[in-house]
From TrEMBL:
Keywords in alphabetical order: Membrane, Signal, Transmembrane, Transmembrane helix
Organism of this sequence: Veronia pacifica
Signal peptide: 1-33
Full protein name: Aerotolerance protein BatD
UniProt KW Cytoplasm keyword: no
Pfam families (alphabetical): BatD
Length: 556
């Protein structure tokens, strides 16, 4: 019985051993069964032609084990797409892993896709022949850069326009456009980039336009190095989903600039340009204005191919009989011309004839290579008397309002010729005294509406002044202030309001500031508060006071 048990144990150990050997053989067989196959969709290929590398493994491998860094020396490499599939067929388990990668060759030659290590297995190497691209074998990246220079022969300080146009028919990313460069030439971009979509031969293109202004600072032959466009184009194969980023670079040709020096016999400010125009206008368009009323003068200077920084500093010497307030020049770009507009507010001080100075600008005609002069004529004005203190002038909105002035009392002298009729004479004087009382009472009643009208007149003037202060226009404020001052010069708050008006003028048009500078640091809050207090006061104007003596008074 004991021998029987020993035989059973031996048989069990033998079975376990044979089972272990079988498992080991199965694992070895599966390991030997792992197979990796690498193929390409096209061979040969052209430079920048996108083709597909497919790697297929039958077996269990890590999907993150693929390392493509060895391909980057000769190929542009896209992001791989990976798929895995597992199956049970009749009790047999199988697994398949596939990578698809978009590639594009960088240059002509014969290049090898090396064996790629996937951990448990390696792929087979592939030799790829790369040929020069042709219209039939490869489609060129549809990105183009074109340039146009306005002129390549110019004078020192003269500007010219350099225009660039980018034609993009691809999915382009990270695009960068560098400006042209040259030693001794200032390069400044003009305006913003312009973009538009066009359709050519049924295909949509994006066109981006950019303009540079070139200004040489020295004479001689100068080499202008062209602009460079760089970026990446995303390409995707027709038969697969993987895409690849292809670098693209386009460059315009270099251009030789011929720069002429300043003529030795030229004097004055150097303004080289093919065209210069100067003009003026003024508002109101009349040669007769009143003292104290503003005249606005606009001087416009249009110069072709001259940068704003090279414009002349216009300074005109005006007579002492006028005050002049300059505003900062305004610049704009119009059809290749740089345009400067200078605005001046001119206020005559007193009546008489005055001549506003003209202006002459000397410049160099680069087309005919000759010195030229452009000018605007002086302006002759007749200054009429302004508003007087005793004759207030109402704003237009108050023109329909008038004061109602009571007619003066006509005094009658009665001569008594018959002194013998004392009773009758006494009765007559009593009657006349009674009439006088009645007339005085009636005149007092008539005077009351006039006072109301006068108060309304003052209120209208203050309302107009308050409105202009709220708007903040210094010229209109001064005009409304003069109207109110001329009628109510003895107002208790006149000194305070006048001081604030003077403060406004000093802030807006300070003589200590540089020419053309105008500040706006004055606040109307203090003046508005003063006007609010003034409106609550009952004050008679000088005109009303001069009429008060004509109103009869009744003594008790």
């Amino acid at each position: 019985m004991q021998g029987y048990n020993v035989n059973v144990n031996v048989k069990q150990h033998i079975k376990q051993f044979l089972l272990s050997i079988g498992c080991m053989l199965l694992v070895i067989n599966n390991a030997n069964a792992l197979e990796a196959l690498a193929t390409v969709s096209d061979n040969p290929v052209s430079v920048n032609q996108v083709f597909e590398l497919t790697i297929s493994v039958d077996g269990d491998v890590d999907t993150d084990s693929l390392d493509l860094s060895a391909l980057r020396q000769h190929f542009q490499v896209g992001s791989p797409n990976v798929s895995s599939q597992s199956q049970w067929i009749n009790g047999d388990f199988s697994q398949n892993v596939v990578w698809k990668v978009a590639l594009a060759a960088k240059e002509v030659g014969t290049w090898t896709i090396p064996s790629l290590d996937l951990g448990k297995v390696k792929t087979n190497p592939i030799e790829v022949k790369v040929e020069k691209g042709t219209s039939s074998s490869s489609k060129r990246l549809d990105v183009d850069l074109q340039d146009q220079l306005e002129k390549d022969s110019l004078f020192v300080g003269e500007s010219t326009r350099y225009q660039l146009a980018i034609f993009i028919g691809e999915n382009m990313q990270q695009a960068n456009l560098s400006p042209p460069t040259a030693d001794g030439v200032d390069v400044v971009q003009v305006g913003e980039d312009q973009r538009k979509d066009v359709v050519r031969n049924g295909k949509r293109y994006v066109i981006i336009s950019r303009t540079y202004e070139l200004t040489p600072q020295k004479d001689g032959d100068i080499l202008l190095k062209g602009s460079t466009l760089s970026g990446n184009v995303i390409k995707q194969g027709r038969r697969f989903g993987s895409s690849v980023s292809l670098p693209v670079e386009r460059k315009t040709s270099d251009i030789l600039l011929s720069v002429k020096p300043v003529p030795a016999d030229f004097t004055g400010v150097w303004l080289p340009t093919p065209d210069l125009k100067i003009s003026q206008r003024w508002q109101p368009e009349t040669d007769k204005i009143k003292a104290g009323e503003p005249l606005t003068r606009f001087i416009t200077l249009r110069i072709k191919n001259i940068n704003q920084s090279r414009f002349p500093n216009i300074k005109l010497k005006y007579p002492d009989t006028v005050r002049v307030y300059d505003e900062k020049p305004v610049y704009s770009d119009q059809d290749g011309y740089t345009v400067m507009t200078l605005k001046q507010v001119i206020i005559p001080r007193r009546e008489g004839n005055v001549t506003l100075p003209g202006l002459t600008v000397k410049w160099w005609d680069t087309v005919n290579e000759a010195s030229r002069e452009s000018n605007i004529a002086p302006i002759n004005l007749t200054i009429q008397p302004g508003e007087t203190q005793n004759t207030p002038v109402l704003p237009d909105s108050l023109g329909a309002k008038t004061n109602e002035i009571a007619p003066p009392i006509t005094e009658k002298t009665i001569t008594v010729t018959d002194a013998g009729f004392w009773p009758y004479l006494t009765a007559l004087f009593a009657f006349l005294w009674l009439v006088t009382l009645i007339v005085a009472w009636r005149e007092l009643v008539k005077r009351q509406p006039s006072t109301t009208s006068q108060a309304s007149y003052e209120s209208d003037l203050l309302t107009e002044l308050t409105r202009t202060v709220q708007l903040g226009d210094p010229i209109q404020i001064q005009r409304a202030y003069r109207h109110w001052q001329s009628a109510y010069n003895e107002h208790p708050m006149m000194a305070e309001i006048k001081a604030e008006i003077d403060a406004m003028n000093m802030s807006l048009y300070s003589k200590n500031k540089s020419a053309g500078e105008r500040t706006n640091d004055w606040s109307n809050k203090a003046l508005m508060s003063m006007l609010a207090r003034a409106s609550k006061m009952k004050v008679s104007s000088k005109s009303a006071e001069s009429l008060a003596t004509l109103v009869p008074t009744v003594s008790k």
